[in-house]
UniProtKB/TrEMBL annotation:
GO cellular component, one term: ATP-binding cassette (ABC) transporter complex
Residue span, ABC transmembrane type-2 domain: 40-274
GO molecular function, one term: ABC-type transporter activity
High-level lineage: Bacteria, Bacillati, Actinomycetota, Actinomycetes, Micromonosporales
Protein name, as recorded: Transport permease protein
Main localization category: membrane
């Protein structure tokens, strides 16, 4: 008597990785479909960094000088791009907290999907939105006379470093959204984002600040990415004698790596421990 052998389901690492990627992409399309239903919020997100550039570049920039006589608006565009990546923390945090508060995250957890798919889906969708913000601000800069001067490869590397910073910052947003679980409480966290973004070299030279404050500004991850972008774009910057000012590209690569290494596993772990 012969016995029919049932095929053993594939549960190896390649199988799990493939389905984790598939689940994450499904949730990414869910997030991006919301943009079509809420175009006003998307438009505000794209116009926000442009407003900052125009306000500081044309209303205040006339009284700010750049070392070496460079154009302040050329120094401002890379800084505004880096600041925009920092402000993305708020978007990620609010969306993640809203899903958790409404029970959407709990419904996802009850489904047979990868534990990392929800946070990875949110991260990927927010990264796409940040890329659109970069494109919008770059186009605004080109229309107002800004340009890069060191060739296409350097320009692309600058954009990669900017998105690399955003990738790191969104994991802070995911973790905070899972911890706070309330869209009302996110306002208190948002208040802290602005000082961290402005305590940088985005709008002014750290050397013009008190020594202790200037040191904090130079070692700010936003400052590192802004300085690296200026260097790679060939735009004027503030300079400085510190190690951070002399090695901005290296620091812009290291800071997001450290942040991601800390907050990505914290986010996945926090997601797995929800409702415990």
């Amino acid at each position: 008597m012969s016995t029919l052998l049932q095929p053993t389901p594939d549960t190896g690492v390649p199988y799990r990785v493939r389905w984790a990627i598939t689940d994450a992409w499904t949730l990414t399309t869910r997030e991006t479909s919301h943009w079509l239903r809420q175009p006003f919020e998307m438009a505000v997100g794209l116009l926000f960094p442009i407003m900052f550039f125009l306000m500081f570049g044309y209303l205040i920039g006339g009284d700010i000088s750049v070392p070496g006589g460079g154009d302040y608006r050329e120094a401002l565009i890379p800084g505004t791009l880096a600041m925009t990546m920092m402000f993305g923390v708020e978007t990620t945090m609010t969306a993640m907290a809203a899903d958790t508060q409404k029970g959407v995250t709990d419904r996802f957890r009850s489904m047979p999907m990868s534990a990392s798919a929800v946070v990875m889906g949110r991260a990927t969708a927010d990264l796409f939105q940040s890329a659109l913000s970069l494109v919008a601000l770059v186009l605004c800069g080109l229309l107002t006379g800004w340009t890069w001067h060191d060739g296409l490869p350097s320009m692309l590397l600058a954009l990669v470093l900017l998105l690399w910073l955003r990738f790191a910052m969104l994991w802070i947003g995911v973790w905070l959204g899972l911890v706070i679980r309330s869209t009302q409480a996110t306002a208190s966290v948002q208040i802290l984002v602005y000082p961290l973004a402005f305590l940088s070299n985005v709008f002014a030279s750290p050397e013009s600040m008190p020594a202790w404050l200037g040191a904090l500004a130079e070692w700010n991850p936003v400052s590192a990415t802004a300085a690296a972008s200026r260097e790679l774009f060939g735009n004027p910057g503030w300079g400085g004698d510190s190690w951070a000012a002399a090695h901005p590209v290296l620091l812009a690569a290291l800071w997001p790596l450290v942040i991601t290494a800390v907050f990505l596993p914290l986010s996945v772990r926090r997601y797995r421990r929800l409702s415990r």
